[in-house]
Amino acid sequence: MISIPANPYSYELPLTGVALIIIDMQRDFLEPGGFGDALGNDVSRLQAIVPTLKQLLEAFRQHRLPVFHTIECHQPDLSDCPPAKLNRGKGALKIGDPGPMGRILVKGEPGNGIIPELAPVLGETIIHKPGKGAFYNTNLETHLQQRNITHLLITGVTTEVCVQTTMREANDRGYECLLVEDCTESYFPEFKQATLEMVRAQGGIVGWTAPAAAVLQGLAEMGWGAADADLDLANTSVG
């Protein structure tokens, strides 16, 4: 067990049962011409976390620890997208509409893919999710249980929507969650800050927060070897 300096107090990282969750680092949210851009957001804010998140991802790969990527998406016929979600917002583009990178938030379209810098590799699990949270209508929890995961390091976008929803879902299911502060971002800086304060309030009512440097130092101190982790490199799991 390693203690990672965190808020509101140290996060105890065990030798086993740890996984990295990367939420929705998709072209539609991070690149010009995508859904986030169509909604009038500054996508460069989200792009800023990519180098740090890539460093954390590479550390997990080096130690051969489980990594889960989520993709928010819907079936081409939008049968899994409720009208309340489909019609909300009144933006220039809505879910399913054709955009510069294909149909917005539709599974398999170019814009729906994870950005190349963080593309999954063999052995990493992809979770396709129709909602904000990564547990809703997915098999994420089954994957976690099969691998005896108890501790989740959570990253990705956006902090106050899909990231926070996933963290709260995980908290209710008994997982010990740490939100990596500089590996998550929002189009609205005040929303990110508010989320960080909410999840760690009242003694960590939802979980912990810490910078990537503290997590990377903790991983280095663990000194895992390549043979020590439970990672099947035979194929990439798709959820």
Write the topology of this structure:
Layout: E1 2-4, E2 11-13, E3 18-23, H1 27-30, H2 35-38, H3 44-47, H4 50-62, E4 67-72, H5 83-86, E5 98-99, E6 102-103, E7 125-129, H6 140-146, E8 151-157, H7 159-172, E9 176-185, H8 189-204, E10 208-210, H9 212-222
Parallel strand pairs: 3-4, 3-8, 4-7, 8-9, 9-10
Antiparallel strand pairs: 1-2, 5-6
Largest sheet: 6 strands, parallel
Strand proportion, as a percent range, falls in 15-25%
User: Rg to the nearest angstrom?
Assistant: 17 Å
The strands making up the biggest β-sheet line up spatially as 7-4-3-8-9-10
Q: Can you count the helices?
A: 9
Shape: globular
Report the strand count.
10
Low-confidence stretches: 225-236
Mean pLDDT: 92
| Helicity range | 25-40%
First and last CA, distance: 30 Å
Q: What structural category arises from helix and sheet content?
A: alpha/beta
Order of helices and strands: EEEHHHHEHEEEHEHEHEH
Structure explained in plain terms:
The protein has about 240 residues and is of the alpha/beta class. The chain is about 30% helix and about 20% strand. The chain has helices at about 25-30, 35-40, 45, 50-60, 85, 140-145, 160-170, 190-205, 210-220; strands spanning about 1-5, 10-15, 20-25, 65-70, 100, 100-105, 125-130, 150-155, 175-185, 210. A six-stranded parallel beta sheet has the order 7-4-3-8-9-10, with helices on both faces. Helix 8 links the parallel strand 9 and strand 10 (about 210). Helix 4 packs parallel to helix 9 and helix 7 (about 160-170) packs parallel to helix 8.
